[in-house]
């Protein structure tokens, strides 16, 4: 029996006592199954309806409920579906589950409702992934990006690219396989190259939006790096607006990574306060220093903290060298300890002690290059989608290089075909069931 032949059920609300609970049932036989234990005949409702009545176990009333009846294909999954809105007792829910099992339904697996919507062409794969992103969203901005994808706006941004690859591939195939159909009209290498360049330019634009969308959706890992006693922990506390990290005048107080998270104008910053980098005879402190250096490699953004009231020393220079190839912000802390006239106009000064860190927050947004328009721009904002975009681009670049070398058109079409197949996979129109299954496994039960 195929998955779509089964009728499935799951709790769509959190599994604890509440005012109401929602049990979702989906499958061609869902209305008939619920009809076995409902107090009135559901077969008389031949269109989407709302019905009030009792759930019955033999002659015993389990609960008085509201049923939302959906007839295929006018449901989320594209199948006959019912949502039972009952009182939020887990005892009631369990009794309903037993009745559903008794009459032939089974419990749904993770993401199975969304998977059925995808397989029944109610959603493409980009829209399906957006559902989990919407559930995971931590900011209104991340929610908006996910909602754009769920509404199909992101797919609309990509479909013209897929169509252009398809058109170019068809042109080449026609000239190669059916030369008599095109007569004297010749497809020139220059024309093919121009079309490939246009597609690559559009992909590059999508990739820019993708990277920004990923930042809005997932946030960034920000490591605060510096030598001991420059105020790294004070900066963390000031950004978090709480005393998360211990602050003392004793160098080497921070031994391990201290983490925190803030919403900085719509961007989640995963902050990592690290041990001060220096040479030490303390075994435990040295472990912290090594962790700090390791964190530099993993972070998306480095805040290098220098002391405004002292000259750079060998440790400062070592840190600047360690971070030179990373996206970083160099900030001079303890600005309250120096005279205003001694400040260099090109340096970024803050005072974590006095909570004067707005210049740092503004600089973070500037370095991340996120503008207001990016919060409302559809984007392919997960690793799978971005990876496929990169693969499409690489196949097109290879096809372009072959075009420049005047390679046979049938050879060029091989890489164009690879780009086209990847474009189908991006929206879920290829029969790659393994990938689809892996995606839906990450969903919660009931979605």
Structure explained in plain terms:
The protein is an alpha/beta fold. The protein has three domains: 3-122, Gyrase A, domain 2 (2-Layer Sandwich); 128-215 and 382-428, Four Helix Bundle (Hemerythrin (Met), subunit A) (Up-down Bundle); 220-365, P-loop containing nucleotide triphosphate hydrolases (Rossmann fold, 3-Layer(aba) Sandwich), CATH 3.40.50.300. It has 15 helices and twelve strands. The chain has a six-stranded mixed sheet with strand order 3-4-5-2-1-6. Strand 1 (8-11) and strand 2 form a beta hairpin. Helix 6 packs antiparallel against helix 8, helix 6 runs antiparallel to helix 14 (409-427) and helix 8 (189-218) packs antiparallel against helix 13. The longest helix is centred in the middle third of the chain and has 30 residues, at 189-218. The chain is flat and about 85 Å long. The model is unreliable at 244-256 (pLDDT under 50).
Quick overview of this protein structure:
The protein is of the alpha/beta class. The chain is 46% helix and 17% strand. It has helices at residues 30-35, 90-102, 112-119, 125-136, 140-150, 153-177, 179-182, 189-218, 232-240, 283-298, 314-322, 358-368, 383-404, 409-427, 433-441; strands spanning 8-11, 18-26, 49-57, 60-70, 81-88, 106-107, 220-225, 258-264, 267-273, 301-307, 328-333, 348-349.
């Amino acid at each position: 029996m195929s998955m779509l032949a089964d009728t499935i059920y799951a709790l769509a609300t959190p599994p604890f006592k509440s005012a109401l609970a929602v049990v979702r049932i989906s499958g061609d036989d869902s209305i008939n199954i619920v009809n076995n234990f409902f107090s009135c005949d559901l077969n008389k409702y031949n269109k989407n309806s709302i019905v009030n009545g009792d759930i019955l176990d033999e002659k015993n009333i389990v609960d008085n409920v509201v049923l939302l009846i959906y007839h295929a294909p006018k449901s989320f999954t594209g199948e006959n579906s019912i949502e039972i809105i009952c009182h939020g007792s887990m005892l009631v829910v369990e009794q309903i589950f037993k009745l559903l099992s008794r009459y032939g339904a089974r419990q749904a697996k993770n993401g199975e409702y969304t998977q059925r919507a995808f397989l029944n062409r109610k959603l493409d794969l980009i829209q399906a992934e957006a559902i989990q992103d919407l559930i995971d969203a931590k900011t209104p901005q991340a929610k908006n990006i996910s909602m754009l994808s769920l509404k199909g706006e992101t797919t609309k941004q990509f479909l013209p690219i897929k169509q252009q690859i398809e058109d170019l591939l068809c042109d080449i195939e026609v000239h190669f396989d059916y030369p008599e159909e095109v007569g004297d009209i010749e497809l020139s290498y220059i024309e093919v190259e121009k079309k490939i360049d246009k597609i690559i330019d559009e992909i590059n634009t999508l990739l820019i939006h993708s990277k920004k969308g990923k930042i809005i959706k997932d946030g960034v890992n920000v490591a605060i790096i510096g030598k001991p006693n420059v105020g790294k922990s004070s900066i963390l506390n000031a950004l978090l607006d709480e005393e998360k990290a211990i602050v003392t005048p004793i160098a080497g107080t921070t031994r391990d990574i201290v983490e925190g998270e803030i919403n900085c104008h719509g961007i989640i910053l995963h902050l990592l306060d690290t041990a001060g980098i220096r040479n030490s005879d303390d075994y435990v402190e040295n472990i912290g220093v090594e962790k700090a250096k390791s964190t530099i490699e993993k972070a998306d953004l480095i805040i290098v903290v220098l002391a405004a009231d002292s000259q750079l020393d060998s440790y400062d220079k070592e840190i600047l060298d360690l971070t030179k190839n990373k996206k970083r912000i160099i900030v001079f802390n303890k600005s309250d300890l120096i005279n205003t006239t001694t400040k260099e106009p090109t340096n970024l000064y803050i005072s974590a002690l006095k909570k004067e860190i707005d210049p740092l927050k503004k600089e973070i947004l500037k370095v991340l290059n996120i503008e207001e328009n990016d919060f409302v721009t559809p984007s392919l904002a997960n690793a799978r989608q971005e990876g496929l975009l990169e693969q499409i681009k690489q196949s097109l670049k290879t096809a372009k290089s072959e075009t420049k070398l005047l390679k046979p058109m049938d050879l060029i079409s091989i890489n164009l075909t690879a780009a086209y197949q990847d474009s189908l996979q991006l929206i879920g129109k290829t029969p790659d069931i393994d990938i689809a299954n892996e995606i839906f496994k990450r969903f919660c039960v009931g979605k």
